[in-house]
Amino acid sequence: MATTSDFRNGLCLELNNELYTIVDFQHVKPGKGGAFVRTKLKNLKTGKVLPHTFNAGMKVNIARVEKRPYQFLYKDDIGYHFMHTSTFEQIMIPEEIINAPQLLKEGQEVDITFHADTETPLSCDLPAFVELEVTYTEPGVKGDTATNTLKPATMETGAVVNVPLFIEIGEKIKVDTRDNSYSERVK
User: Fold this and answer.
1) pTM score over 0.90
2) What domain count does the chain have?
3) pLDDT at 142
4) DSSP 8-state class, residue 118
């Protein structure tokens, strides 16, 4: 058990039989009435972020979660298969808990968050940026760079990312896994 004074970003708590992580919080002391804590909580199962207000000093249940390093092996009809990088233990997780499954390639390092008490996987987070090779894109037209024009490009994983006109087939680019967008060309 913890109180609202123990809140910090990233803290995982149990509320209404669901697991939430604190995305943002703010202690508020109005001129009239009692103090309270305004939070934004992210549901670890659905990924939805919702606002919630706690009275100051309220007790909440803290859930123990662990992040463990895994390496992506392959995908089949059952799900996505990963291997722990130090114990070589293999697990299978469903696509729903992976933050950007279309950007996963074999050998990719990820962090899988587990509920420490039940040993169930809660979420799979890719690094903020991944390097992927462009396998197909239309050629850019010379002189068409006056505006910030983008064209679709197919990556080695099959994902389609909008890239600038100067990107060619065979080039490696950095892709932001949070919003599936082009970041920069890899040299």
Assistant:
1) no
2) 3
3) 66
4) T
